Amino acid sequence: MSSSRRRRPWTLRTKLIAQLVVVVAGVCLVIGVVTVLSLRSFVLQQLDTQLVDASHRAQAYVEGGGSGERGPHPGPDHRPPPVGAPGTGPGTVTARIVDDVVYDAKQLTLQAAEQQDLTPEATAVLTTVPVDGQGHSKDLPGLGEYRLMAVPTRLGVVVTGLPMVLAESLQTNLSWVLSAVALTGLVAAAGTGILIVRRTLRPLNRVAATASRVAELPLDRGEVALSVRVPESDTDPRTEVGRVGAALNRMLGHIGNALRARHDSETRVRQFVADASHELRTPLAAIRGYAELAKRSPEPVPPDVAHAIGRVESESARMTTLVDDLLLLARLDSGRPLERREVDLSRLVTDVVGDARIAGPAHHWQLDLPPDPVTVAGDDQRLHQVLANLLTNARTHTPAGTTVTTALRVDGEDAVLSVVDDGPGIPPELQPSVFERFARGDSSRSRAAGSTGLGLAIVAAVVAAHDGVVSVSSEPGHTSFEVRLRRFGALS
Ligand SMILES: Nc1ncnc2c1ncn2[C@@H]1O[C@H](COP(=O)(O)OP(=O)(O)OP(=O)(O)O)[C@@H](O)[C@H]1O
Ligand SMILES: [Mg+2]
């Protein structure tokens, strides 16, 4: 199942409240059912007591011969209907059964307390009551639920019944009242639960907020001031949330120390590289000077010595470039701000491509400039170096006859500088790391050109220091470097 279709997980708060509501609902249900059932059994007991009385009355009345009129269905012995017994309550049902024949099946009506014959269906039900002197609940068609009791007498079986309407309505009413109370209780429990849970979880939210603030900090480079901490009040180890808060603070402390150590060591290395490069410049200048002096000596020198002096000169020149590059990178790494002056990129491109034409006459150098000058805010010399490095690469890493097109265009707020050549391209395995330090192709051309692999690293560092972006795409026959810089005066 895909993650988008998966059900959203419940929050801790929703889970706690749902569990609380389920528990309260369960308790209410049990209380309600037990109350209704016990009330029902109590009311039935009462009714049965009344039923015994009523049954005795009817029995005595029948056996005693009665005093009232005869009913419309006099029994075989002309006894009066038992419903006429004095003290019979409204709603009472009575009948006498002799040899499976029902006589005097009557009801004393609820409203007028008059004797009324039962319907044949209701009468039929009376015959099904077991003759055991016990109360039995039965439904009399047209009259509702009745509690019926049949007792044997000398003059047949006398059946007496009392309406259960009171017990029924009591049970129904109580059920309604209990449901209403339970529902109110549930709503109140849920409301209180929400308040309590929200209050209880507030410290946890604060701890989570601290963790998110840390997650938003850029921790990957530079000096990181990891001063964010969980508030003191949420770090009491005697509480669960406090333990989480304290653990988070301890972890942040460790991470802060580790980051500080990393930054210190980076700074030391950078400082060492900068110092070493700086210190190396003077002896290198001296070596170059002495080599120059030796070359100018009027005395004849053997050819192998002359060759050695030439090598010393060229290698020291190469080392000087390397040392200068290292020093520049160390300075850029330390975040020292660059100059921010208006630089005319159009003029700079014209100059650098002019230099490249002189340095690489075997290549075809093309220029594509917009009619209006394009200016950016930055460091003239460093930007010069960026373009010079790109053009040097296009010259040294491609065969003679390659066409190199340097173009400048305006794209909204940006000035876009591109250097495109139709040479063999950058080896695919080198492409992902081409802007890293000392990354270079090991073709014989590169080695012969005395490359060090710092040229593009400097390009990337200088462009980044100008808040710009450099990108490369390369395939055989088409290698393109693109540098995107903010135009002068554009809002940053
Ligand atoms: N235009 C290009 N065509 C083909 N390969 C290139 C091109 N530009 C760069 N490369 C490859 O990328 C590598 C890295 O270039 P980078 O300029 O960083 O170092 P380098 O030119 O080797 O040495 P350095 O510039 O320090 O003298 C090069 O060694 C080369 O293999
Ligand atoms: Mg280079």
TrEMBL record:
It catalyses: ATP + protein L-histidine = ADP + protein N-phospho-L-histidine. The chain crosses the membrane at residues 20-43, 174-197. SUPFAM superfamilies: ATPase domain of HSP90 chaperone/DNA topoisomerase II/histidine kinase, Homodimeric domain of signal transducing histidine kinase. The keyword Transmembrane applies. Residues 198-260 form the HAMP domain. One of its GO terms (cellular component) is plasma membrane. InterPro entries: HAMP_dom (IPR003660), HATPase_C_sf (IPR036890), HATPase_dom (IPR003594), His_kinase_dom (IPR005467), HisK_dim/P_dom (IPR003661), HisK_dim/P_sf (IPR036097), Sig_transdc_His_kin-like_C (IPR004358), TCS_sensor_his_kinase (IPR050428). Its main location: membrane. Residues 62-91 are annotated as: Disordered. Its cofactor is a divalent metal cation. It is an enzyme of class 2 (transferase). Residues 275-489 form the Histidine kinase domain. This is histidine kinase. It comes from Labedaea rhizosphaerae.
